[in-house]
């Protein structure tokens, strides 16, 4: 069956406890992002269509959630986008001292966990799930017809 996205969230929580280890704190940011990203990606792939591998899938997950016309999901998409920026900083900008502060990392982890739980709660409702599937399908239809939105 493979690994579930929640395992990344559990690992991020454990990594946050290593307050004197900047590499662990940076990794917590990355794992928190990937928990939410993979949860949303799995949903889209199960209910809408298969996504490409690599960076393109990150963009598509965000765009699908952000353009589904459901405010709650659009808020989650905004968090996903912010968390991706933080993940990029944590993974690629080793000169930043932003992630030396465990309080900052814990706040970012809390954001990832809250968005993860919000997405899970939203799609656990059959009516919401159907609205999200239809919203993504409508957006895909618009972009396939040449409209950016």
Task: Kindly describe this structure.
The structure is a single chain. With 149 residues, the protein is mainly α. The protein has a single domain (6-144), classed as Four Helix Bundle (Hemerythrin (Met), subunit A), CATH 1.20.120. It is 75% helix and 0% strand. Helix 3 (55-66) runs antiparallel to helix 4 and helix 4 runs antiparallel to helix 5. The longest helix is centred in the N-terminal third of the chain and has 26 residues, at 22-47. The radius of gyration is 16 Å and the shape is elongated. It starts with 5 loop residues before the first helix and ends in a 5-residue tail after the last helix.
Write a short abstract of this structure.
The chain is mostly helical and 149 residues long.
Provide the descriptors you would attach to this structure in a database record.
elongated, mainly alpha, Four Helix Bundle (Hemerythrin (Met), subunit A)
């Amino acid at each position: 069956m493979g690994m579930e996205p929640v395992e990344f969230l559990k690992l991020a929580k454990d990594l946050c406890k290593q307050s004197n280890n900047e590499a662990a704190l940076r990794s917590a940011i990355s794992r928190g992002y990937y928990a939410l990203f993979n949860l949303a990606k799995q949903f889209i792939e199960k209910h809408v269509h298969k996504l490409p591998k690599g960076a393109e899938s990150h963009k598509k997950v965000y765009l699908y959630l952000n353009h589904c016309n459901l405010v709650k999901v659009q808020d989650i998409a905004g968090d996903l986008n912010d968390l991706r920026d933080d993940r990029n900083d944590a993974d690629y900008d080793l000169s930043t001292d932003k992630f030396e502060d465990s309080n900052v990392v814990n706040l970012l982890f809390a954001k990832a966990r809250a968005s993860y739980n919000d997405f899970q709660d939203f799609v656990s409702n059959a009516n919401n799930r159907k609205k999200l599937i239809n919203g993504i399908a409508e957006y895909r239809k618009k972009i396939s017809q040449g409209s950016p939105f």
